[in-house]
UniProtKB/TrEMBL annotation:
Protein name as annotated: Transcription elongation factor GreAB
Top-rank taxon: Bacteria
Gene3D superfamilies according to UniProt: Transcription elongation factor, GreA/GreB, C-terminal domain
GO process annotations (BP): regulation of DNA-templated transcription elongation
GO terms assigned for molecular function: DNA binding; RNA polymerase binding; translation elongation factor activity
Keywords (A to Z) from UniProt: Elongation factor, Protein biosynthesis
Keyword Coiled coil assigned: no
Organism: Pseudomonas koreensis
Coiled-coil stretches: none
Length: 160
């Protein structure tokens, strides 16, 4: 698996998401400001509801723009077995039941998923419990996190 290809897929997905969000925000704004949606009485709330939706869509656009900017400015480095896992690492984890997953540790865009040759890769950030616990760990290390009071343990199988 190639870390640079995964990074590019993440950037491409963020650009697509940004385009969709911008179009949704524009549609919501046009609906909120359309003359047919001017309230005729205090019970006519379509325009107000559309304005709330437009504000939410605009906020989402800014969040995606921020994620895209942070990920574009990410400098990918080769894994250094002296420094351990850091932002920009692509890594494989195995849970206690032997299930494997691939993660990309990014500065933002948590939860975004991309796929490489049928292998799903999930973006996590150091703000998540798992991302925080992975920082500085090494290939072969184990990490443990608590999620909703339940202990979860993972082994780092590979780091790129």
């Amino acid at each position: 698996m190639n870390k640079h290809s995964v990074h590019q897929l993440i950037l491409d997905k963020l650009r697509i998401d940004l385009d969709i969000a911008e179009r949704a925000a524009l549609t919501a704004y046009e609906t909120a400001t359309h003359e047919e949606n001017i309230a005729e009485n205090k019970y006519d709330t379509l325009g107000l509801e559309a304005a709330y939706l437009a504000a939410g869509q605009a906020k989402r656009v800014e969040e995606i723009r921020q994620s895209l900017a942070l990920c574009q400015n990410l400098t990918l480095r080769a894994y250094d077995d002296q420094r351990g896992i850091e932002i920009g690492a692509l890594l494989g984890l195995e849970d206690e039941k032997g299930r494997e997953q691939w993660l990309f540790l990014a500065p933002d865009a948590a939860g975004l998923k991309v796929e490489v040759v049928g292998q799903p890769i999930t973006v996590i950030t150091p703000r998540s419990p798992l991302g925080k616990s992975l920082l500085g760990k090494f290939e072969g290390d184990e990490v443990e996190i608590l999620v909703a009071g339940a202990r979860q343990q993972f082994a780092v199988t590979e780091v790129l």
